[in-house]
Every structure is written in structure tokens, then in C-alpha cells.
Amino acid sequence: MLPADCSRRLVAELRDALDACAERQQQLERSLRVSRRLLRTWEPVETPAAEPAPGPETNEEVPSPACTPSRQELKELELLTQALEKAVRVRKGMSKARERHEALSLKSGDAATSATTASAPSRASSQVWSRASETKPPRGAHQTTVPARGLPEGRLPSVGDRTRMARGARATKPGPGLRDQQIPPSAAPQAPEAFTLKEKGILLKLPMAYRKAASQNSRLWAQFSSTQTSDSRDAATTAKTQFLQKMKMMSGWPGSGLSAAEVEAEVGLLRKACSLLRWQMEEELSADPADWMQEYHCLLTLEGLQAITGQCLHRVQELRAAVAGQQLRPWPEGRCPRASMPCEGRTDSSWSPQLLLYSSTKELQTLAALRLRVAMLEQQIHLEKVLMAELFPLVSTRDPQGPSWLVLCRAVHSLLCEGGERFLTILQDEPAD
Amino acid sequence: MGRRRLRGHRGDAVGALPEAIAALSQTLPAGPSPEIFRRAKFDRPEAAPALWQLLFRVLSPLPADGASASRASPASPALEAQVHLVKSALRSQGYPRRALAQLPEDGSQGSRELLLALAWLLARGPLLEQLLAQTRVRLGDEIPLCECETLASAGPLPPRREADGPVDIRHLQWLMGKLRFQWRKLITSQQEQCALLGKIHSYTRGCHSDRSLGHLSVAETELFRDPEGGRQLLQRLESENVRLEAALVWRRQELVFWKWMDTVLGACPLEASQPTLLPRTPTVGASELELVARELQALHEELRGAAEPRRVAWEARAGGRGPERTAVQRASQEAVGRELAALQRAWEQGEALAQPHGPRRLVKRDAGASGGPGLRAAELIGVLRSRETCLEAVLGRLQTRCWQELTRLAGARPGLLWILPPGR
């Protein structure tokens, strides 16, 4: 068992780390849910922007795709294609029926003719067509039940014909005969294809109201974040400084000025200083001086580093005094809100609409993974330091002959030297005799 | 336009102050009516509750809009709790006026003190900018570049959960294992999210009216799927635009406000200079301070251990010094002085940790496409990689130090064989 206060501190640190992780996970799950839903099929709302919108920023200027038909057009096309395909089937069915020596009587028959006469050149975009032609017509028993009459003798439509016919038919209106014709249930017009972002995402067009608000928003943010100064801004800055000074002069608190937030910022600076100093020291110690000049340089640097570290330690003393003497009170809930912490070395937190450009999913994944890796390493380093500070005193004060000492050593080694992933083995080396 | 110019001519007279105050209260989250500010100048009690609530909102920012939707806008705590929180938050930020701390906890009084506190917060830093940035409507897909953003968007922390009693070290190992597992899960989910984003971006390419963006973001695509959500988004966007416009007006007019605040401060009695003794409780900063103090102490010892023998050896060898040698030594001293000063600047001004900062909208652009403003992912990857290498080295050094320390401690019990696990 670890001592109570040590347990309390370490468990709190680890739980903080876990909470931070869980929060990230939650945020991520939320956006994953939304993204997954968008990539499944769904029915988009008919936005006003589906009609061609006026203005300089309409979609027509975008180079790809060259020509995008509206949803209405697409629906019509689909219906038309189905009708035409049916006509082709009717022909085929006819030919088969003939092979069976015309066993059945024929009723209506102008459908096929209307299809063959329609042979005007294609005008609509081939993109739309290729999609429509992919939908396979259901094949069924109606081949024999809907025969056709008046088909030109001996001419059966080939696959090529079928395409040509259908393509041509798009230019003309379907003949009345095609509609009046009695259609068996299986050939009834299908419901329009379900919407998927993959196939039709490109047709989406943002509503006008949104476009206006969004462009105004980014303009305002840009204006707001621009750091240009003016005379009135300078005057306001002076006025604010004077106000703060006057307020401090009139206040009743003793003026030994460090707040809890400032202490925290100072501690952050010291932490940064410490890691830089250590890094510099290790650089110096690993270098191999070639001559007496370099040797002297190294000596001076080490002494200088020692002096700076001494200054930092002095600052620590001052901060300790400030913490102790000022009756600083923490937040009632125990911790300050994180939002008030500025990023290291940065004070501006204003947002301006800037872009991060990526070229492929792979690149985005690399970026995101690296960002998490850096965050994880930062957390690991912090935890390592906390654990070192708490666990080493325990190892050195417990009795090495006691039963729990080896267990503790092994756990400490795993936590501190192996990131908790591996364990070492300890063997009792019994004397041979 | 014409009216504004007219007011400008009149200067500080009648129109400008109400305009400045109105702009301020429009910019603040749930800002009270300008009338409240006027009453607060005369310390009228009816203005107090609104100002406590305002300060509460300002000092404990709500989580960003993305999160608030699912958290179903947490109910504000009772006024008394808000008063308590405002007082201690101001204290921890170093607010100088004692009168505020002495106000009754029921929130019924002190409107002038509260007005002063608000002005203090405004004068001290970019408060409005921070507040606007925190509640900003996110239209684009973003990847936070810096840890401060991940943390800031999370809102207030839940109270810290500590262990009830002593725990076994195996419990720590278990928690560590759990942590590793969570990171792995996080990385997997993040990869999936990137893949989905890439799909959505390429399926909607060319759909955005803003050609520098090109494709839609998730939020924008959602507009088509969920019309009700879309209406809400539009509403939030429009109200943010109103706030931004008000903030711009405030910037032009704020000088008048500060002159007015001077008269408010002038109306306050001078506080007697005597410290009140509050119960002393350890701060969060204190334990962090001790941690860094210990590190610095260890470093100081190591440096002394390295420098002292070198100095002794140097003095022993350098018996007779020629004038030429002294000159070289002086040059060395100056060079080292410069290097160390640069090192000190590095942490004081944060030069060493230059890292791109601030949220950015993700835009997919083909590798061959011509540039345009914006940070390239490849650049950022480079920065992150060097940061990763640096952190790995730091962690590696710490682990080596731990191993050395453990070997030293193990010397207390000879006759043991320590077999390291494979893979190191």
C-alpha cells in the first residue's frame, strides 16, 4: 500500500489525465456520429437554392462539373429512361414470342415505334446519362404478356441500338402511346434513387440566407481580428492603463502584487526554463572539447547555467513566499477554469478565419495522429515527473529487506522506465555453496 | 452613416456614452440592458443581481457551441453560488478591491463594485475578444493545433476526484494501462474521423459559394439533412454577426466609457489599507511549484557536480597566463554571456516553442492546385514531427534518469539479478 497522501495525489493526477482523454473521446464520438450519418443515405431538404440563384457567386463558375442538371430534371430523366427501357424489353419479348411461333395475341403496339423514331442527337450531359443507364430493369414474366405489334420485320434491337435509342429519346417528349400503354406492376416507375453524398453531394447548393450570413461573418471576424491601431484605440489603451493604476492606488489590499493566476504563469515559465537549462547542460556534457579554448567555453557555460539555475531557485523562494503570505484562495470547486489559461507565450486568443490546407486523407490522418502523439507525450512527461517525485522517496525510505520492497521496485521500474508496458525480472542470486 | 458623424462632432456629449454602453452590453454574453449600467453608477441595489449574473457568465465561460448542444445548456447555479464563484475567481486573478469581497453573499447589493470589477476585467486584457472567440459559431471543420484550444473549449472542470484512502501501487498501474488504452482508442477514432472528413470534402467539392473554400464542411452539409438544425445555426450565426458589429462599435467608442468609469471610480470612497485575514488553503499552484522547485534543485546539484571539478582542473593547469591567453579568455566569456542571455530570452519570450496556434478551417485542396492563403498541412506536419522528436528525447532522458536512480537504490540490496524486459 502507498501512503494515503501520496495515493491521493497520484490517483488524482492519473484521473485528471483519464478525464482529459475521455473528454476528447466524447468530442470525437459526437463528430463521428454526425459524419457517419451524412455518409449514409438520407433525403436532403429542398432548399431554395435548388433553383438557380442570382448573384456573382453562383455555382456556374466552378469548373467541375461542367454542367449540373437540377434535381427536377434528373427525376424526369429517370422516369423517361425507365419507360424507354421497357420499350426495349417489349421489343425483345416480341422477338422471343415470334420464335415461339406467335402463340399469343397482340393488343397494343405503338410503343416500340415511338421509341425508334426518336433518334435526335443527345443534348444532355453524359454524366447524368451514364448513371441512369446503370439502373438495371427488372426482368420478369411480362416479356410474354406484353407483346408488340407493327415492329419492322426482321429487325431486332441490339445492345448498341438500345443505348442509341434511349439516348435519342431524351431529346423528345415521350409519346402519349407510351403512357397510355398498360404497364404491368413490375415495370411501374421506381421511386427516385436514394440520396447519397457520394453520388449526389456535388449537387448541393448552400441556401442564400446562409451564404450571406457566412460571408458577412468571415468579413466581420477579419475586421475584428485585424490589429490595426488608430488614435482613438491608443487613447483608449492609455485610459485603461490609467484606470487600472488608479484602482490599485485606491484599493485596500496590501500591494504585494501576485495573484494565483500570476503564480501559475510564473511556475509555467520556470518549468520551461528548467527543461531548457537541462537540455543545454546535457549538450555541454556530451560534447568532447578538442582544445583548451573549448574546454574553457564549456566550463564557463556550465558555471553560467549553474548561476541561472540559482536565480530560478531564488524566484521559487519568492513565489513560495507569495503563495504563503497572500492567502490566495483557489476556486470553490478546487480548480481554476482552464479557459483562463493562456497558451504558453501567447496572449492573443482572438479568432480569425484562417485555413489549413491538406491534399489527401492520408496527409490529414498523419497530421491528426501526430497532434495526438505530441499531446500524449506531453502528458506522459508530466506524469513521469509527478511519479518520480512521489515514488522515489518511497523506494529509498522503505526497508530493502522488507517483503514489499522488491514488489515496489519492480512496479516503479515498470511505471517509470517502461511506460508501464513491460516488467523486469528480479532473481535472487543464491551463493553457490 | 450621417448620424454617426453627427455624434462624432458632439464628442463626449449626450449620444456617445449610451452608444458605447449599448455596444458593450450587446457584445457581452447575455449582456444586461444599458440602463443597468447607469443605475450601477449610483450603486442602486436593483442592478446588482443582473451584474452578478453577467460577471458569472464572463468568468465561467460556457463550453463551445459544438459541445453545448449535447449537454443541453446546463442550468445556471443559484445566485448565491454565482456570487461565491465570482468573488473567488476575481480574487485568484488578483482583483485589488476589498469592498467586493465584503459584499453580502445573497447578491442583493454592490452594483457599483460590480461595475468596477467588470471594467477592471475589460481594462486588463482582451476580454471581449476572448469571449467572442469562445462562443464562436463553428462553420468549418477544424483540428485544434495547440493544446490550449482543446482545453479551452471544454468549459469548466468537474471537481477533482481523489482517492478515498491509500491505494496499492497496482492500482496506479491499472490506471496507467487504462490511460494507454484510451489513447489508442482515441487515435483510432481520430483516424476514422479524418477518413470521413476527407470523403465529405471530396463528395461536396465545388459546392461552396466561397471559392477559396471549395467544398462544404460537415456543419454545412448538415444544413441539408437537418433543416431545423440549419435554422438554428443560421440564427446563431446572425446573432454572432450582431455581436461582432457591436464589438466594432465598442472599439470606436470605448474611450468615452473609460472617461465615464473614471467618474464612477471617483465616486467611491478610498479603501482603508488593512489586510483582512482569510482562511489559508493550499493552492493548486503550490504543488506545481514544489514539483518544479525539486527539478531545479536537482539540476543545480548536477551542474555543481559537473562544473566544480572542471574548475579545479582548469585552475591547476593554467598556472602561468600570458596576455594573449587572457584576451582569448575574455572573448570566451563574452561569447558565453551572449549565448546564455539568448537561452534566457528563449523561455521568457517563448521563442523556442513557436508553434502554429489558433483554430483553422480544414480545406481539402489537390496537391497540384495553385496556392492561396492558408497554412499547409505538410508544414505543420514538419513542425509537429520536430516537436515529437524533442519530446521523445525528453521522455527518454527522464526514463534513463529513473533507471540510474533505481540501480543506485538497488545497491542497498546486493545479491539480486535484475533482468530487463526484452525490447529495450
TrEMBL record, chain A:
Residues covered by region (Disordered): 45-69, 91-193
Source organism, top-level taxon: Eukaryota
Native source species: Odobenus rosmarus divergens
Phylogenetic lineage: Eukaryota, Metazoa, Chordata, Craniata, Vertebrata
Full protein name: Uncharacterized protein C16orf59 homolog
Pfam families (alphabetical): DUF4693 (PF15764)
Regions of compositional bias (Low complexity) in chain numbering: 111-126, 181-193
UniProtKB/TrEMBL annotation, chain B:
Chain ranges of the Tubulin epsilon and delta complex protein domain: 94-265
Source taxon at top rank: Eukaryota
InterPro entries linked to this entry: TEDC1, TEDC1_dom
Pfam families reported in the protein's UniProt record: TEDC1 (PF14970)
Record-given protein name: Uncharacterized protein C14orf80 homolog
